[in-house]
Amino acid sequence: MNSYRFESGRIAVVSATHAAVLTEHAVISATHAVVLTERAVISATHAVVLTERAVISATHAVMLTEHAVISATRAVVSTERAVISATRAVVSTERAVISATHAVVLTEDAVISATQTMI
C-alpha cells in the first residue's frame, strides 16, 4: 500500500509541476501578446507620423507652388507696367512731334503773312 501512496504522491507532484509549467507558458504567452500589441501600437504610431510628414510635405509643395505663382504674377505686372511706361513715352514723343509740327506751321503762316505784307 505504501508503494501506491508513493506512486500517487509522485503523480501528484508531476501533475503539480506540469500545471506550474503550463502556468509559466500561459504567462509567457500573455507577455508575448503584450509585446506584440506594443509593437503594433508603435507601428501604428509610426504610420501616423509618416502620414503627418507626407501631409506636411504636400502642404509645403502647395506653398512653394503658390509662391511661384505669386512671383510669376509679379513678373507679369512688372512687364505690364514697363509696357505702360513705354506707351507713355511714345505718346509723349508723338505730342512733341505734333507740337514741333504746329510750330513749323505757325512759322510758315508767319512767313506767308510777312510775304503778303511785303507784296
From TrEMBL:
**Per its UniProt entry, which superkingdom is the organism in?**
Bacteria
Instruction: State the protein's name.
Output: Uncharacterized protein
